[in-house]
Amino acid sequence: KQNLQRPEELNKKQHHTELFNSDYLIVRRGQEFQVKITFNRPYNPATDKFAVEFVIGSSPQFSKGTYIPVFTAKERPSPWEGRVTDTADNTVTMGITPVADCIVGKYQMFVAVVTPVGIRRTRRDNSRDLYILFNPWVSADAVFLDDEKERQECVMTEMGIIYHGAYDDVAERDWNYGQFNYGVLDACLYIMDRSDMPIINRGDPIRVTRKASAMLNSRDDEGVLVGNWSGDYTYGVAPTSWTGSTDILLSYANSKMPVCYAQCWVYAAVFNTFLRCLGIPSRVVTNFYSAHDNDGNLKTDIILDENGRVDRGRTRDSIWNYHCWNECYMSRPDLPTGFGGWQIVDATPQETSDGMYRCGPASVKAIKHGQICFPFDAAFVFAEVNSDVVFYSRNKDGTMEPVKVNRTHIGRMVVTKTPGDVTRRDITDQYKFPEGSTEERTILEKAEEYGCQREKSNPPVADVDLVLPTLEISRGDDFELSLEFINRSTQHRTVEAYISGSVAYYTGVTSYEFLFRNPTVKIGPNQSVKESMMVEFKNYVKHLVEQANLHFIATGKVKETGQIVTTMKVITLHNPKLTVTVSDGGKVNEEMTATVEFTNPFTFSLEGVYIRMEGPGIMLPKSKYYSLIPGSSSLTWTEFFTPQRAGRSRVIASLDCSAVRQVYGQASVTIEP
């Protein structure tokens, strides 16, 4: 008779799994864990023969690594190392080391004893199941990351900050990754089951991340999240309303149906939870001015008519104000030496790769060095950060001629959260060499040799500059927009200008033009002239779409020289804030309160309002619905919660309705043990 006692808390501590809210043993591969076995009499190593057996999947086979017997006797070699570390009375403690490239997932454990009448095996008992995860702490594992601060952030941290807005006015979105919450690990394994991924591939981080990048979107495989950029979220949760990944993953695992709705940061955030949960170091990265180019070249084409006005019907490529993807850390034995480390994976369905909506893993170093042929999808990512914006003038006969090339607009800044801090870290230099450096030119030429088409022509630069100011504007403000015309020549210049202001989605798609002017501006030699316009809230309020971006583009033609001048600016309107307060004196397992307060700053009522609140390690997701919040009235919502663990955390809250999206607030909390 044997009963397998729960292995001590020691395993969890040594394997960095103590934060998982689970009753099962969770260990990491390539590292020893202890199992205690109690027999019905003392163990005699000379005569007693037994094995601890591990089984994964529905048809375990020794040859496939899905049935692993671990012996104590040296004469029977085991794929996984086993040794007796302690014996006391009828109890044997055994140390077992899964190989560093074993399958990641949930195993069943048995003990088999050789008796005179054959082999006797313990009965199937769910409580003895264990999970084996990737191990970034062990050098033999493909995901080994030799930097403790980075590991603490990219594997162990549940509190995230995702950057959005505009590159010169960056906004933050707090997110609870919740990778250690109850049920999340099972949900992540369910995603792999659902994808029909062969169990023997599940120890390879390249295959796991590539499969997951397809499985996190619902296009073509009933994956986790349904994308929706339309502005109508009647049949689901608005992307801007989510505060964390827990609800999304548990809902998918329970309903077995894709969850509505996501946009890029939601895909990236839930993917991040999946990666951190399984033990693959990962982070969410934001690229400001991300090219989404529809015809596979390194150009984002903006087409102007013969007068210099943007031809919206013919301009197909879009520039996303920002785009979020993930980086995960792993070796790349399939690539030449030096291209391991951070890899880009992107679950937002933009382009199909090998017939599926997925992207990556693509080596960040390969992107920086222009090795765009390396698998997987390096060319697509290279274009997202390196495209040129090319303005074409369309002549009356339909021919197109490049009139201006902007080589610095796209991939303006790439950022992620600083490890161990709540500040942001600029990692643009990991993706590209400094603008205008000789290395940068060499890299772009190399990419061209591999078949990326770039704009060859260098149209002469006009001697008139247009400048739009950087403005910080709150929703509800009227403001003055002044466009400056600077004449750098020694002669008079006349510009026939087109100034357009539209409401735009963060994907660069415009929905409504609320401002259009076409002044003719005369500028003396070496002079500058400002053309000012009042922009009134009432003119654009009815047309605002969720992320409240105003997109200004000014173009024009210099009468004297025929040259084209252009400038673009994205202004992200600042939304009202939620105030979140937390009661004093936080202690583990002692009840606390969190209060969300909001005042509707507008004259109109807000209808169909959802408020959500959660906090990493301290509060599971909660939500509340208000059918109406009248203009200038206030609401207060208080919830009780009981923190599960000590340390620093945040309570994150969001308010969302069709009239105003992305209203956020947070409170920092320190919980004493």
UniProtKB/TrEMBL annotation:
Chain ranges of the Transglutaminase-like domain: 256-349
Active site: 264, 323, 346
UniProt-recorded name of the protein: protein-glutamine gamma-glutamyltransferase
Enzyme Commission no: 2.3.2.13
Keywords, comma-separated and alphabetical: Acyltransferase, Calcium, Metal-binding, Transferase
Family that this chain belongs to: Belongs to the transglutaminase superfamily. Transglutaminase family.
SUPFAM superfamilies according to UniProt: Cysteine proteinases, E set domains, Transglutaminase, two C-terminal domains
Chain residues that bind Ca(2+): 386, 388, 435, 440
UniProt keyword Membrane, yes or no: no
BP-aspect Gene Ontology terms: blood coagulation, fibrin clot formation; nervous system development
Cofactor note: Binds 1 Ca(2+) ion per subunit.
GO MF, any single term: protein-glutamine gamma-glutamyltransferase activity
Names of the cofactor(s): Ca(2+)
Pfam families noted in UniProt: Transglut_C, Transglut_core, Transglut_N
Species this protein is from: Sander lucioperca (Pike-perch)
Catalysed reaction, written as an equation: L-glutaminyl-[protein] + L-lysyl-[protein] = [protein]-L-lysyl-N(6)-5-L-glutamyl-[protein] + NH4(+)
